[in-house]
Design brief:
The complex is a heterotetramer, with two copies of chain A and two copies of chain C. Chain A is of the alpha/beta class. In chain A, 38% of the residues lie in helices and 20% in strands. In chain A, the strands form three sheets. Chain A has a seven-stranded mixed sheet with strand order 3-2-4-5-7-6-12, sandwiched between helices. Chain A has a five-stranded mixed sheet with strand order 9-11-10-13-14, sandwiched between helices. The mean pLDDT of chain A is 97. Chain C is an alpha/beta fold. In chain C, α1 runs antiparallel to α11, α2 packs across α3 and α2 runs parallel beside α13. The longest helix of chain C is centred in the N-terminal third of the chain and has 29 residues. The N terminus of chain C is likely disordered. The chains are: A alpha/beta, C alpha/beta. The interface between C and D is medium-sized, with 20 and 20 residues. Bound molecules: thiamine diphosphate (2 copies) and magnesium ion (2 copies). The site of one magnesium ion has 7 residues of chain C, from β5.
Amino acid sequence: MAGLEKLSYRDALRRALADAMREDEDVFVIGEEVGRYGGAYGVTKGLIEEFGADRLLDTPISEPAIVGAAVGAAMAGMRPVAELMYVDFLGMTMDQLCNQAAKIRYMFGGQIGVPMVLRTQGGTGRSAGAQHSQSLEAYVMHTPGLRLAMPATVHDAYHLLRQSLRQPDPVVFIEHKGLYATEAEVDLSRPAPDWGRAAILREGEDLAIVSYSRQVHHALAAAEALSQRGVEASVIDLRTLNPLDFETVRAAVEIVGRAMVVSEGPMTAGVAAELAARISEECFDYLEDPVVRVAGEDIPISVSVALERASVPTAELVLRTAQRLVA
Amino acid sequence: MAGLEKLSYRDALRRALADAMREDEDVFVIGEEVGRYGGAYGVTKGLIEEFGADRLLDTPISEPAIVGAAVGAAMAGMRPVAELMYVDFLGMTMDQLCNQAAKIRYMFGGQIGVPMVLRTQGGTGRSAGAQHSQSLEAYVMHTPGLRLAMPATVHDAYHLLRQSLRQPDPVVFIEHKGLYATEAEVDLSRPAPDWGRAAILREGEDLAIVSYSRQVHHALAAAEALSQRGVEASVIDLRTLNPLDFETVRAAVEIVGRAMVVSEGPMTAGVAAELAARISEECFDYLEDPVVRVAGEDIPISVSVALERASVPTAELVLRTAQRLVA
Amino acid sequence: MYLHLTFVTHHARHGLFFPIGRAVTSTIAPTSAQTNADLAGLYRQMRRVRTFEERVGELFVRGESAGSMLHLSIGEESAAVGVTAAMRDGDTFTTHHRGHGIFLARGADPKRMMAEIAGKETGYCGGKGGSMHIADMGLGHLGANAIVGGGIPAVVGAGLVAKRRGTGAISVAFFGDGAMQQGILYESMNMAALWELPVLFVCINNQWGMGTRIDQATRATALHERAQAFGLAGETIDGIDVLAVREAAQDMADAARVGRPGFLAVECYRFFGHARKDKSPYRSDTEEAEGRARDPLARAREALVAEGHDLDALDAEIAAEMDATIDYAIASAEPALDTMFADVYGPSAPEPEPVSMRLDRILARE
Amino acid sequence: MYLHLTFVTHHARHGLFFPIGRAVTSTIAPTSAQTNADLAGLYRQMRRVRTFEERVGELFVRGESAGSMLHLSIGEESAAVGVTAAMRDGDTFTTHHRGHGIFLARGADPKRMMAEIAGKETGYCGGKGGSMHIADMGLGHLGANAIVGGGIPAVVGAGLVAKRRGTGAISVAFFGDGAMQQGILYESMNMAALWELPVLFVCINNQWGMGTRIDQATRATALHERAQAFGLAGETIDGIDVLAVREAAQDMADAARVGRPGFLAVECYRFFGHARKDKSPYRSDTEEAEGRARDPLARAREALVAEGHDLDALDAEIAAEMDATIDYAIASAEPALDTMFADVYGPSAPEPEPVSMRLDRILARE
Ligand SMILES: Cc1ncc(C[n+]2csc(CCOP(=O)(O)OP(=O)(O)O)c2C)c(N)n1
Ligand SMILES: Cc1ncc(C[n+]2csc(CCOP(=O)(O)OP(=O)(O)O)c2C)c(N)n1
Ligand SMILES: [Mg+2]
Ligand SMILES: [Mg+2]
């Protein structure tokens, strides 16, 4: 798979699953419409032909039991990739995810782990309404025992999923529905940062922008625009929120003395709150300005195209805020 | 009910339910063991005699449907008080709570509200293990559409519950299992702060301690001890996390220039993170020191008495941290 | 009976399921003048549903819908119309993501429905809800749900209220066959039976849940037996005959009103793809052809025409009514941006502070 | 049959349930030498469970247990012993909050169990789990659960693995009657039937869920009928006769191994309160007396003694074995504080940073 090729985020995810399943007999996918249908967003399309219905297990609509079955399969020695069609359905599965998967290793004194991946997707962009457009990663980040990966790029869609499939612990892997169609020229043989390490996508002396998932692209766009005006911003893609690579964030912030965190999830008690609190407490003496949070509104998502768009950070808001911060 | 009387937190909660049920025919309690048994922690003991089995509705062990039924009853015009025996079971109900109760008013354009109270209890103190000792308020605080009340005192156990029962929106009311037996001389006819207003339990010029629920008592104990050494701390009991009375916090912090937030929930992406981020961004120019977070460890809770105790902030840790902060 | 018989063999061939219970008798055409009068009314409602859904498809094709997650109930009209015909004023109900027809049959204004599907301010929810979250609480609609099974337990609560207040009302949960695999349904049915609630559970079994056929989701396809095992009255009825559906629903509704909750599965077929972009590659043309041949609307029309009814004028009138819904939706305005912060909490509470306002305050410091 | 019959009338009077299915024949005493040999072995295991649980109660009374959330399985020994007798090496299982007996019957070391219940470092989970979370994965125990119904779906996953690898193993979920009202059970049973998994669902129906009697939790008390409605083999058996329980479990286990999952409800009685502090004020003394009279241990002992067995020595030996567990638990040390941060993630990953360390770093600034 050496060499440059044009790939979409969706294709890269499919490639990661296929490569992992070829390498490891114990990897299998379990979820709604993952087999015959090929996944609600087409990520698993075609895989059933190569790997069969046993390894692309179509399930009834029973989210709690899907996650619970994955927990049992992981304990019994395989490596399930459970799929939740929308992260919005997490609420139905949080007992199995947070009371079971996340705690089993600990409760039983380290006897066993739960090496499963829960693949799902979230975010706005399809007028899918209040129950199909959420960004719920904060629930996961707040739960000890769960790893959390959120790829922003095509390269990471592949490598973060492969890395997630090598973890000894449950990994919640959240894709962004607005990124599936994005394409890039990538060389998948090029290594990705290690698991748990953030990626510095851009370096600058005036401002550090810390983000993840789709908002990384807004941050990069803003940084480019700022650069036109002679303002240089660092852009950090966290890649995983657990583990959280705070050292990379600290280093960047201590150099520039100004930080902005960008997240699509609701602002209050969300991921942006953790990042802002952490930077504020650990880099206090280096900060010339308050750490600014650009995040989703504390409201449900509307189906109206206009309201939906305005409910989460836009590239314009990220840029405008960055400009004022460095002004 | 005028005049001073000695009451426990548990008794005050029971009194609030009884008074509310006497005043309003539409208030009823629905949950596991709330009637005949009188509640796992005795809060509803005896109420079935006065109000009957229709208004203290014992349910099967079906948490998702208990919350869902309460949502339906609230939409149909009554005012249910659903009880979750342990907040740890929230995970089973989060779809009904966060996708239904929290979003119904909004999704349907304000046509109807869901005036229900979800009473539950959390926290450590009984060697109840990883699935019966959690502090999960952050999940609720992060969810738009849900109110969140967490009484720290006997007086509030009564008044906050009465106030919660007057809200037009779903209120998650989280008691602390370690407080049920605490007693105080209270005059319930004395008014409590309005719904959504924090209480300033102590005023001082050197440090502002912001907390809620059981940790408020650790904060007060620390403040007393500091006072011996001539250090005066303000102690703020937030009472409700949604609404969040930030103005009261701001005022206190801007005077003293130093803040510490104390929460029993896990630190990462928790309530303490929101409070610290908010204070840091809004009071930036007034802060002489970083806002310090004293919170639960990012680990599950052990059954071992020693490990359980060490997993959440102790009065000693709160005091020690406060001392070093003002040093 | 011909059509019916071919469908049976078709069932055998493709593993769809022979409708049990009353179904076997349901293909007998109505005779009495009374039932014909009823049938004419039921036909009218079914036609309105069919035509409305066709217009929803058109709205999407014209690029005027809010998104593509639009689930048409074409082929399922007898369930919506037959069951709602057994409901009264004051009854409440919850619907699923394919609930346009049910809501319309309960008296909704198709203009405001179409406007909501377009995400416009004139829609039932001011553009906040959309196709999967349309409702008019004034009509007893306790909400449409985009969570499969999510609206089911609400009828338990509404049933408790109706029983306690002695209103004589029932509460009906409508959902698809896919929801039969959601545990919350069994928790809800158990409570309804335990408390003898005036509640009805109606499963619209269109044989498919997205790309999963009912026999690919469960081995136990006699769905009503599950309800019986929880102590409810349970029955499966063939949706081909709207009169039979109404009759079955009427019996169950009557029983529910006096505290005997029931479960009714209506066998039908999802004529088109799951949502607007789904072309159903996972099922055969033969199956689709035979499934679509089981058309309750055509069946009712045949019977009425055989009786000498001329329905062309009615159909035309309905077509015109529904055409107007598209014009109305398109002509309506997008909701104003400032409505975004309303309705998160009750009207007396302050609205959530917009992020931009928060940022203004923080960045204003000097 | 006398005792049995009185219990029937007792049932009628108190609304407990007459065990159905095989139960009616289950009170016939064993005859062949073979079954007696078996019965002796089963008696020994049941006695070990009974005595262990009595010692757990003693540990609590002596103030040496970690907390009071200790759920004794006294009265339910035939379920634990009878069903596990039908299990083989390599089989996996999950248990509920009242699972001490099941785990012990599967070969657990009672010393390490008692130490865990005391929250000590020598316990199976190093003091992290406690009474509701004891397990030895080496024995195929996929965990004890404090969430009612929480451990049930795991057997679906374990069953998938066993089937895929062709190990011939089964996975058994043990849970109480209260879990019959948790939806996840039905989702799990549906999957087991759909995928023909080597899985067994065992409901230990001790008539009570905390202070709620089974007929106060559901109207459908023939629990096995629910499993049948989902396509599983379903049966209810009277727990009074451990041989009958083992026989029923054996048949179901054999069927499960070849892909026919089953559900077995074992009728028994919770002799004592829900947890250590519950005195069961919600049930009558008569009911308790008659419930406790249905003692599978006493029944087995009678039968063996009638055959001339002298069991006093065995009982004494077991008493000594279990006495030692208390001494062991008390003598063991509390877990070291620094173990607190281990086992949150895999061993190769850094441990979570303690709050105090974080504070040190932040407060260290000058
Ligand atoms: C909890 C949940 N899981 C999955 C989905 C995605 N989804 C939407 S509709 C659907 C199929 C539902 O099938 P059925 O219940 O038969 O209703 P139908 O679409 O046939 O009307 C699925 C899987 C969802 N919306 N909610
Ligand atoms: C999800 C959940 N709900 C409620 C509880 C509280 N609780 C613990 S045991 C119990 C009763 C369980 O009854 P049953 O399943 O019959 O088991 P038994 O105690 O009789 O062995 C309850 C309600 C819990 N632990 N988990
Ligand atoms: Mg369907
Ligand atoms: Mg029980």
